[in-house]
Amino acid sequence: MKKVIFALATALTFGSLTTAFAYPDTLQYGKDGKQLTEKFQQLSRDSVWEQKEKIDLQFNTFHPQGMTKVGDLYYMSSVEIIEKPVKYDQPRDGYDRSPGKGIGHLFVFNTQGKLLKDIKLGEGDMYHPGGIAFDGKSVWVSVAEYRPNSKSIIYKVNPETMNSQEAFRTNDHIGGILRDGKHGNLKAVSWGSRTFYEFNEKGKVLNKSINPSHFVDYQDCENAGEDQLICSGITELPQQGAATSKYELGGLALLDMKTMDMVHELPITLFSPKGHVVTRNPVYLENTKQGIKLYAVPDDDQSSMLVYETSVNKK
């Protein structure tokens, strides 16, 4: 089995989803997680990623944010922007922009790209979901205001019932969250991943630290086993001679779960048909016999899930 996939079987019936799970500490921290982290540390900018599939998603994806996998089903968070936030000339009440308006979604779709469930999440100005992760029992989703230094609601979603439950609220924009399935605490990143958080399940801040890396802003993180996590992200860089055009630099990073220190990172230079780097939006990695498989949904609205694989020699 793969990375954070604890599902042993998934049965789909019209109008309902049922899933049987193997819980944390059975697969996540075993041989498969160890292999994934070992292989990841062998990746470099010279690693060759071969596109294996292009799955057209049969629904409007709006602006995808995070993705995880439970059995044969994919869970993807997304923000539907109704009114874009507008930057203020001067900060107002501690904010640098208006809240805007939107709707938060958690989409569930199958291997053919068919939408099976659209779970609405959020409240008021908090409509922007971030990176998500599955801990073997629940899918964790943060939904924040679409502006830095704001507020967030943290949800957990039961894949068996598709019901969402508010876990807690916190006073910052949480751009991505995952649970350390071995210890039970939650790791999170702020707007642009400039701050790392550790919460307990009731939302108490146990630790807060500054992200020392400025390579990319993490968009989506997943538990990689072996007390480590893998994050994906993007940085927009100015291009010489171009007034408005930005170069999208993508990247992947392996972090130590306990300290949030960098273990290994590398740039990603794969681009979608629309010209976006593949780590711009949701990314999900899993271990394979030959190496590592990467799933990505880099484009907005009418999106495709791009699937790549790279071969890694075993040590």
TrEMBL record:
Signal peptide stretch: 1-22
Keywords: Signal
Superkingdom to which the source organism belongs: Bacteria
A Pfam family it matches: DUF6454
UniProt cross-references to InterPro entries, sorted A to Z: DUF6454
SUPFAM superfamilies noted in UniProt: NHL repeat
Protein name, entry field: Uncharacterized protein
